[in-house]
Design brief:
heterodimer; A: 360 residues; alpha+beta; 3-stranded antiparallel β-sheet; B: 304 residues; globular
């Protein structure tokens, strides 16, 4: 007997509203349908009504987790249209904030994954750690969610004492290496819930065009920080963790290893930070007619902004956003086919979906 | 045991008057212990009682197509049978009991679980039905080892009377049985790693999803009473025999408390297992226990 189980739009396993209709045979999922659009706010249209200063504040509110990534990508695209290059110190500060954001996003995801496995102790540990990452971000920017660090041609705020931030980052790294990573990699119950479920094969990953940690855990070695370096990533030394298995455990491992790599990048960026200006100093910008695109490796994968402008205008003609969840989402259907019903919340969460970015 | 003492045991001690506060206390201990282990503050001491009173004061909205009487009957049946099970526990030495009360206790302990299954199906919610199906599968798998353990304890000591069992010196088989019962308790009390039927991230709260107000309060109470009865059963079997009641009663309470703590630690240190892993685990337990029980019986026969 097959029956349909609606998961969402409001469900304890979902952070954000979307809907997964699961067709089940007993406890086995035989098909799935995905519905999105519950969180549509018309931000791309609103962006066309804002000037070049206001649009940055607006796009920061596309996502609550990777707010910095959106302004970073937008500013890079707008720098392409104004022919400005941010000074070296600004590029380093951009790397620091982006990596701290990656840390905070990955730890948050780890907590949610733990909660979906029914492992609430781990959830609490992860969120305690995330709180500490947010403290670092607050120490740098004064804000916990929308950092407003980026501007056209640089950053708004300086990291006055990089070595003090470095100390906080090192304490964080030690705690992650001591708690989160060993528990996720060695706990028997956690492993029994993750290993071999929600498999996305290498071929399927390429044909679905998945990005970010989802692609890397299916053996696709893609990382924009290496492939198309932006900010100061070309001066950093780091590895891109790749796992061949494509199951939830591989996604967990990739993110766990990325946490450690992020700490490594942070250490380099904070110790090597060059002195100098924070931004180009312009207050008014002359945009040229045209379209500029920018790509950034967000915690969930590649974010792309395509910004069009007409010369003499203060407002953008079009701001188009492509978020990683938009490309990763269709892969959920292939991951849940044949899975147990009990595993579907974890499988859908394993791509680290962000529907507020996707619906915007 | 005449009617009056039986009623006194059911209603006063160790029945409702003792068991209901004990149930709230155990629920609080479990919640507080888990909270402390997770770095949270946890609920205040009276919280389970406040929850109960608050739920009692609410009215349940009428829903189309759900049999109102049946929905009300299941939690009441669960509460009364769990209270009956508690009443049978020989907390005080020489408190009575009759030949075969162990079998009655087991039957009464099983009723709340059957009520949950029935309640899930009568709620006509897809999440309730899945939860009930899981509860049914779970109960079939853990009950084999649970019953096997109790039957082998009783058979090895030639009595099905709880009080007699509590007074006899423990044999190795009895410790093996107690261990097997302890393994079954997380599943019986819906705790991690076997909290499948009420997995809120997967199927909301399973069979309880359509319940609210006083009926939900009754479910909470029956869950608490199950805690008292199940931990009490283990404490009865594991407690050393003491004739003085004022020593025996604190030992009983301390042992129950220790079991609650043990189960809370297990619950907070594990993730929820999937249904097939759980079933496989319990059947493996059954097999191991059966082999151990038979070999220990053979060993004792050879020795005597």
């Amino acid at each position: 007997m097959s029956y349909k189980i609606p998961m969402g739009p409001f469900h304890p396993a979902l952070e954000e509203p979307y809907k997964l209709d699961l067709i089940c045979e007993g406890e086995t999922v035989s098909d799935a349908k995905l519905h999105i659009g519950f969180n549509f706010r018309g931000i791309e249209h609103l962006a066309e009504t804002r000037n070049y200063i206001q649009v940055i504040a607006l796009m920061e509110r596309v996502c609550g987790i990777c707010s910095n990534i959106h302004t970073l990508t937008l500013c890079q695209a707008m720098e392409g249209l104004t022919n400005l290059t941010p000074p070296p110190r600004a590029r380093y500060i951009r790397v620091v904030v982006a990596e701290l954001e990656r840390l905070h996003s990955h730890v948050l995801w780890a907590g949610i994954a733990a909660k979906l496995m029914g492992f609430k102790t781990m959830f609490m540990t992860c969120f305690e750690l995330r709180e500490k990452v947010m403290d670092v971000l607050q120490a740098i920017s004064g804000n916990r969610v929308n950092y407003s660090m980026n501007r056209i041609g640089g950053v708004n705020r300086d990291i006055e004492d990089p070595l003090a931030v470095l100390k906080m980052v090192e304490a964080l790294e030690a705690e992650m290496a001591r708690t989160v990573i060993p528990i996720f990699t060695t706990s028997t119950t956690a492993r029994s819930r993750c290993a071999g479920i929600g498999v996305l094969t290498h071929e399927k990953a390429i044909s679905c065009g998945v990005v970010g940690p989802v692609a890397r855990s299916s053996g696709v070695p893609q990382d924009l920080r290496h492939d198309a370096p932006y900010a100061a990533y070309d001066e950093m030394e780091f590895n891109t963790p790749v796992e061949p298995d494509g199951d939830v455990r591989a996604r967990l491992m990739v993110r766990a290893l990325e946490i450690m790599e992020s700490c490594r990048i942070l250490r380099q960026a904070l110790t090597k930070m060059p002195p100098g200006e924070l931004h180009t100093g312009d207050a008014k910008f002359n945009f040229v007619t045209g379209t500029s695109t920018s790509r950034v490796e967000a915690p969930r994968g590649e974010v792309m902004y395509s910004v069009s402008w007409r010369e003499g205008s203060r407002n953008p003609a079009r701001v188009h956003v492509r978020t990683p969840t938009f490309v990763n989402m269709p892969a959920i259907r292939w991951m849940v086919l044949g899975a147990r019903l009990a595993d579907t919340p974890l499988i859908q969460a394993s791509i680290d979906p962000c529907y507020s970015c996707t619906d915007r | 045991m005449n009617l009056i003492t039986a009623l006194a045991r059911l209603l006063i001690f160790p029945g409702l008057l003792f068991a209901v506060p004990a149930a709230w206390f155990f629920l609080w201990v479990e919640r507080k212990a888990v909270a402390l282990m997770q770095g949270r503050i946890g609920p205040p001491f009276m919280q389970p009682f406040y929850d109960f009173i608050k739920l009692l004061g609410k009215t349940t909205p009428l829903r189309e197509g759900i049999g109102g009487l049946l929905m009300k009957a299941w939690p009441l049946l669960a509460v009364s049978s769990a209270a009956g099970a508690v009443a049978l526990l020989p907390v005080l030495p020489s408190s009575g009991g009759f030949e075969g009360d162990l079998i009655l206790l087991l039957a009464l302990l099983e009723v709340p679980s059957m009520c949950i299954i029935a309640a899930g199906f009568s709620s006509r919610s897809i999440f309730g039905e899945i939860g009930s199906a899981r509860e049914a599968v779970l109960s079939v798998s853990y009950n084999v080892v649970f019953l096997l353990a109790i039957v082998s304890i009783a058979a090895s000591q030639h009595t099905f009377r709880l009080e007699a069992l509590a007074q006899l010196p423990a044999s190795p088989l009895r410790w093996l049985g107690v261990l097997a019962i302890l393994v079954c308790l997380p599943a019986k009390l819906h705790l991690n790693p076997f909290s499948l039927p009420n997995a809120e991230q997967e199927i909301y709260s399973g069979p309880m999803v359509e319940y609210a107000g006083p009926e939900l309060a009754m479910w909470e109470l029956s869950h608490g009473l199950e805690w008292v009865a199940a931990t009490g059963l283990v404490a009865t079997l594991a407690a050393p025999h003491v004739t003085l009641w004022w020593i025996a009663a604190p030992i009983f309470v301390a042992l129950s408390f220790a079991i609650v703590l043990l189960l809370s630690i297990l619950a907070s240190a594990t993730a929820r297992l999937a249904i097939d892993t759980t079933v496989r685990f319990y059947w493996q337990c059954t097999l191991i226990f059966a082999v151990l029980a038979i070999s220990s019986v053979l060993f004792m026969r050879l020795r005597s």
